[in-house]
Amino acid sequence: MIAYLERVSIPEPNNNEDDDVSLLRNSLEDLQLQGSIDYGPTGSASKDFGGMQITKPLAVIRPAGAEDIAKVIKLASRLPNLTVAARGNGHSINGQAMADRGLVIDMKSMESYNKIEVRRHPPCADVGGGALWADVLKCCVPFGLAPRSWTDYLDLTVGGTLSNAGVSGQAFRYGPQTENVTELEVVTGKGEIVTCTRNENSQLFFSVLGGLGQFGIITRARVLLQPSPQMVRWIRVVYSEFSEFTRDAELLVSQEEGGESFDYVEGFVFVNSDDPVNGWASVQLDPNHPFDPAGIPTSAGPVLYCLELVLHHRENDRPSSVNLVVDRLLGQLRFCKKLRFEVDLKYVEFLSRVKVAEQQAKANGIWDAPHPWLNLFVSKRDIADFDRLVFNTILQHGIGGPILVYPLLRSKWDSRASVVLPEGDIFYLVALLRFSPPYPKGPPAEDLVAQNRRILHCCTRNGLDFKLYLPHYKSQDEWEQHFGDQWTRFKDRKACFDPLAILAPGQKIFPRNHHHHHHQS
Ligand code: FAD
Q1: 318/321 Cα distance (integer angstroms)
Q2: Which of these, 156, 203, 229, 280, could form a disulfide with 312 (CB 3.0-4.6 Å)?
C-alpha cells in the first residue's frame, strides 16, 4: 500500500464524462496512429518513482515515432481541457510525468524510433528521446566511445534528463547533459516537428533544455561522445571539517581541463556513527578495507563528509603510474589521512554502480516504497550555513540513503537554457535521496515530506540563495518565485511553443488554456 497519497483523482461515473471519453476514443482512432493506444487499466502511467501520487490518464499512447506524437498533440489542441504528458521512465518524484484525465505518451515504448546510431566523425550518437542512458552506453562502448556527462543512475530517459539538466560527477567539466547535445528533434505544443540546434531554431533548442517538458516533446537528440575510458580508479576520502571539504572540492572542480585532474568529483554527507545505513559503513568501497573510526579526529561533529573522486585510466597502464598521478592529486588535499579508500574497476561497471544498489533495494522492498526526495542547488555563499542548519541539525541522524553535496561551475551552464540556478560562479548540488523501508517499518512518507518542507522553510527564513532542482510546486505564485527574473522569458516561451498549455500538466505550472479552434467546436 502506498502510505501517502497527495492527490487521488478517480473519474466519477457520470454520463457526460462517458460521452467525452467515447468521443475521445473515436477521435484517437481517427488519427490512425502507427503505434498503439491503451485505454485499459493505465497501471504504471498513473504512478511514478516518488510513489506518493496516483493520477489516472484517460489513455496511454505508445507512439511509433514523432509523427504519431504530432497527431496526438494536434488532436489535444482541438479538444477542450485535454492535456498530454510525455512519460520517460517515470522516475519523477511528484507526478511530473502524469496527466490527470489526459493522455500519457509512453516514450520508452517507441522501440524502433529509440534506436541509437553511433557516428565516429565527429563522435556523437543520435538517440531517441525515450531511450535509456543505460542503452546509449551499451551501444557506444563497442565503438570505443561514450557520452561525456552522466547521471549517477542510468535507467533514466534521454528526453527526461534533458528536460531537467542531467547532473553527475562529470558536470563540473562538461556541464550537465543539456550542454552535451548539439541537435534535437522536438514536437512542439502546436504539433509541429522541428529540428533545432544552437544556431537553427535556437529559441526552441534552448527552451526545451531544462524546460520541464513545457515547450515540446524531445523525440531525438544528438549526444556528444568522447573516447570511452577503459578503467577507473574510484576513490573516497573523508573529512571532519566542512570548510576543508568544500575548499578541496572547489579546488578540484576549478582545475583546468587538460592539466592533471580527476575526471569525476562528487561528495556526500554521512553520519558519524556505526549506523549500518547512514554511518561509517556507507563509505568503504572494498569489504577487505573497512572504515576504521580511529581515523576520525576527536574534534569531529555528528556528521562527516566524503569526497568521491574518479581518475580514468587504461587497462594496460601500470598500477604504479596510476598511483603516482592519484598520489599527486590527493597530495593537495586535507582529508583525514587514514580515511582513504580506493578500488580499480571497469568504466562501465563504475557507471552502472547504482544498478547494483537498485537490485539490493528491490530485494528488500525499499526500491518500491515512497521516495520523498529533495534536490537543491545551493549557492557557494550559503553552503556553510546550509551545512550548519540542515546537515548538522535537521539531518544529523541521516535520511536512510545518500545525501549528496558537491560543487558545480555556473560557467558550464548556458544561461539561454530554461533551468534556473542560484547566483555566483559556484553552486552546490544537494540531493536527499531517501530510501526508507515502507511504513510501518519506516517512517510515514508524510513525515519525510514535512521534513523536506522544514528544510525549505529554514533556507528561506535564513535568506539562503537556493533553487530547487527537479522542482515541484503547486501554485503559479511559487513557480513565479522559482523562476525569478526568468519568469517572463519562461512564460513567453510557453506562449510561443505551447500556447494552449497542453504539455506536461503534471508540473502544474500553466493551467490548460481553454481556447480552441472555432471550426472544431
Ligand atoms: P520522467 O519522470 O518520465 O519525466 C520527467 C519530466 O519530463 C515530466 O514532466 C515529463 O513529462 C517530461 N518528459 C519526459 N520525457 C520527455 C521528452 N522526451 N521530452 C520532453 N519532456 C519529457 N537526475 C540527475 O540529474 N542526476 C542523477 O544522478 C539522477 N539520479 C537519479 C537516480 C534515481 C534512482 C532516480 C529515480 C532519479 C534520478 N535523477 C537524477 C532524476 C532524473 O533525472 C529525473 O527523474 C528525470 O525526470 C528523468 O527521469 P525519466 O526519464 O523517468 O523522466
Answers
A1: 5
A2: 229
Amino acid residing at 364: N
Q: What is the DSSP string of 263-306?
A: SEEEEEEEESS--TTTSGGGT-SSTTS---GGGS-TT--SEEEE
C-alpha cell at 216: 515540446
pLDDT tens track for 391-424: 999 999 999 999 999 999 999 999 999 999 999 9
- What DSSP designation does 177 have? G
- Ligand 1 centre distance from Cα of residue 164 (Å): 7
- Cα 347 from Cα 158, distance rounded (Å): 20
Does residue 418's CB lie within 6 angstroms of at least one atom of ligand 1? no
C-alpha cell at 395: 539531518
Mapped onto helix, strand or coil, the DSSP state of residue 481 is helix
* Among 93, 3, 8, residue whose Cα is nearest residue 54: 8
Residue partners of 59: CB distance under 8 A and separation at least 6? 24, 25, 28, 37, 38, 39, 42, 103, 104
Could you tell me the distance, in angstroms and rounded to a whole number, from the CA of residue 49 to the centre of ligand 1? 10
106-132 tens-digit pLDDT: 999 999 999 999 999 999 999 999 999
Strand partners of residue 186:
194, 218
Q: Is the Cα torsion angle 341, 345, 348, 349 positive or negative in sign?
A: negative
162-176 burial, b at 16+ Cβ within 10 Å, e below that, comes to: bbbbbbbbbbbbbbb
Q: For the chain, how many residues are written?
A: 521
Q: Is the CB of 24 under 6 A from ligand 1?
A: no
C-alpha cell at 479: 513557480
518 in active site: no
Q: Please report where in the chains the cell 516537428 appears, as a residue.
A: 193
Residues 6+ apart with CB under 8 A from 185: 66, 129, 193, 194, 195, 196, 218, 219, 220, 221
Tell me the CA–centroid distance for residue 197 and ligand 1, in Å: 22
This model's pTM is above 0.85: yes
- 13 CB neighbour count, 10 Å cutoff: 7
